[in-house]
């Protein structure tokens, strides 16, 4: 080969190499731009579909919002989401089955009240390493107090992406002011005081049930609110929202551990049970909540329930929609005997867990980094389509587009199950009625983090069999007590106690006491 040919071959080879290099840089830059994470370009070359589950029911406008969400995710991280919902009436049964069956699921809403700790102990969730969190969730890492990760650890491992900032809320009961007037009531401080209100509902509103409870979310709610008249009750360790088990008095700084069927807790339960039985016998409670999957706050708006239940965050849409129908509302906060309540937005109150069998855990983390902490994603998933579901008003508040009301909005705030987004990014709402504004202003006086087991996480691994037995006993013997559908309260508790003892409640108490003691000693 002569020198000229060699030179031509060298130049062609050099040009080909440069072309390949420039092409690779172009692809890399494109992926880097999409992910906003410069060292993650290669991970997003393959498009993936992330299958996830939230709780509740999809709003009517969900298809349009999901379509827009997926357009953005496809552009930013080359992924889309297939979203599914577990209805409120199915949470207790379907949620654990979904995880146990090892189905093709990538992520799921998780919280202490859906058994986050228990499912973590069973190996249902993917462990998030600090390195992966920093690598795949840069927005969340920058926005969140690092100590929050410690709050969600189970045996020193992280299995949840918690909300970035805590919500401020209390549990509430919502009444109608027109029915309060019929009952001769102007102020109500506790749920136990609504007897005349329920009587007015039954007397004057034949198509309405005073307490129209559903099978899951609200089944035990009024019972639990009544308990708080007597004792600082917030739930049993690891027992789910309706379970009987082991707990303590939130107003007691000593942290003394109780079974819910002994001493002051049994007295508080019987107090609540007798009131619920009285209301049930008088027809103030729907006869078969087990067959009802419609929440009280939804029936409240339809004129089928005299009372709605929720919390300071999710009740806002109900209050707005009621106002749109000309219904003035009255809010009763559910407080402890000391007028306080544990801060409603603790780290374990709600977040997202990646399932152990997810094939794309890194991409889930990237998606949640955007959904949870990128302002444009946060507003989309929580408020919907700008211009259709919400607008930004001239005074920089969140309002409704012209012609849209809280009732007709196809994607109401907080209704789609994306409760874990960073609410610190929200502007104020221009649509809040004055009664709700006043309630929010009082939250700083209600909420407290000053209680013995703040940040305590119970590990039920050593008593998981007993915990399962307690759950079964609670469903069979406690649920009828909660709604008042028992002939004799004392006999009903005798039967409950007998079955809880058989289920191993003493062994669970011993394990809680052991972990609680270690926790309190470490806090000193």
Question: Which features characterize this protein?
Answer:
524 residues; alpha+beta; 11% strand; disordered N terminus
Explain this structure.
The protein is of the alpha+beta class and 524 residues long. The chain has 19 helices and 16 strands. The strands form 6 sheets. It has a 5-stranded mixed beta sheet. It is globular, with a radius of gyration of 26 Å.
Widest sheet: strand ordering:
2-1-3-13-6
Assembly level: single chain
- The end-to-end span amounts to 85 Å
Q: What's the shape?
A: globular
Helix/strand/pairing category: alpha+beta
Rg calculated over all Cα atoms: 26 Å
According to DSSP, the number of beta strands is 16
Largest sheet: 5 strands, mixed
Helix content: 40-55%
Write the layout of secondary structure elements.
Blueprint: H1 3-35, E1 48-55, H2 62-77, E2 79-86, H3 91-100, E3 107-110, H4 116-121, H5 130-136, H6 138-143, H7 147-151, E4 153-154, E5 157-158, E6 161-162, E7 171-176, H8 177-182, H9 195-204, H10 221-227, E8 246-248, E9 257-259, H11 263-281, H12 296-301, E10 308-311, H13 315-324, E11 329-333, E12 341-342, E13 351-354, H14 361-373, H15 375-383, E14 391-392, E15 398-399, H16 434-446, E16 447-448, H17 464-483, H18 489-503, H19 505-523
Parallel strand pairs: 1-2, 1-3, 12-16
Antiparallel strand pairs: 3-13, 4-5, 6-13, 7-10, 7-11, 8-9, 14-15
Helix pairs in contact: 10-11, 14-15, 17-18
């Amino acid at each position: 080969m002569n020198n000229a040919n060699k030179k031509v071959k060298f130049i062609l080879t050099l040009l080909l190499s440069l072309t390949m290099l420039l092409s690779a840089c172009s692809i890399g830059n494109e992926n880097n731009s999409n992910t906003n994470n410069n060292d993650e370009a290669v991970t997003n070359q393959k498009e993936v579909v992330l299958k996830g589950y939230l709780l509740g029911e999809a709003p009517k406008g969900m298809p349009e919002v999901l379509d827009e969400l997926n357009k953005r995710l496809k552009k930013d991280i080359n992924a889309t989401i297939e979203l599914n919902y577990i209805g409120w009436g199915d949470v207790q049964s379907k949620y654990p089955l979904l995880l146990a069956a090892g189905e093709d699921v990538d992520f799921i809403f998780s919280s202490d009240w859906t058994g986050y700790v228990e499912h973590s102990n069973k190996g249902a969730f993917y462990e998030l390493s600090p390195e992966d969190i920093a690598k795949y969730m840069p927005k969340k890492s920058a926005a969140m107090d690092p100590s929050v990760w410690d709050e969600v650890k189970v045996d020193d491992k992280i299995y949840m992406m918690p909300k970035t900032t805590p919500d401020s809320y209390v549990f509430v009961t919502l009444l109608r002011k027109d029915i309060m007037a019929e009952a001769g009531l102007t102020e109500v401080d506790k749920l136990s005081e609504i007897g005349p209100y329920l009587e007015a509902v039954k007397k004057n509103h034949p198509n309405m049930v005073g307490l129209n409870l559903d099978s899951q979310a609200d089944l035990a709610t009024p019972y639990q609110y009544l308990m708080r008249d007597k004792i600082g009750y917030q739930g049993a360790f690891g027992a789910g929202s309706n379970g009987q088990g082991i707990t303590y008095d939130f107003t007691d700084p000593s942290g003394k551990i109780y079974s819910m069927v002994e001493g002051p807790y049994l007295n508080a339960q019987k107090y609540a049970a007798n009131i619920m039985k009285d209301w049930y016998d008088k027809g103030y409670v729907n006869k078969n909540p087990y067959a009802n999957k419609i929440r009280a706050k939804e029936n409240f708006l339809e004129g089928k329930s005299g009372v709605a239940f929720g919390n300071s965050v999710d009740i806002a849409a109900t209050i707005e929609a009621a106002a749109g129908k000309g219904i003035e509302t009255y809010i009763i906060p559910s407080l402890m005997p000391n007028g306080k309540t544990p801060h409603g937005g603790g780290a374990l109150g709600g977040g997202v867990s990646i399932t152990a069998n997810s094939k794309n855990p890194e991409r889930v983390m990237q998606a949640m980094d955007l959904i949870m902490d990128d302002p444009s994603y946060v507003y989309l998933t929580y408020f919907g389509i700008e211009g259709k579901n919400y607008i930004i008003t001239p005074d920089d508040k969140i309002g409704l587009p012209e012609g849209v009301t809280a009732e007709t909005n196809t994607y109401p705030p907080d209704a789609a199950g994306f409760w874990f987004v960073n609410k610190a990014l929200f502007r104020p709402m221009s649509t809040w009625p004055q009664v709700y504004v006043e309630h929010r202003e009082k939250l700083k006086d209600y909420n407290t983090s000053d209680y013995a087991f703040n940040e305590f996480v119970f590990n039920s691994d050593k008593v998981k069999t007993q915990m399962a037995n307690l759950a079964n006993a609670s469903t069979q013997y406690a649920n009828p007590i909660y709604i008042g559908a028992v002939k004799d309260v004392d006999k009903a508790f005798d039967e409950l106690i007998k079955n809880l003892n058989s289920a191993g409640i003493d062994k669970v108490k011993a394990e809680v006491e052991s972990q609680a003691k270690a926790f309190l000693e470490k806090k000193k």
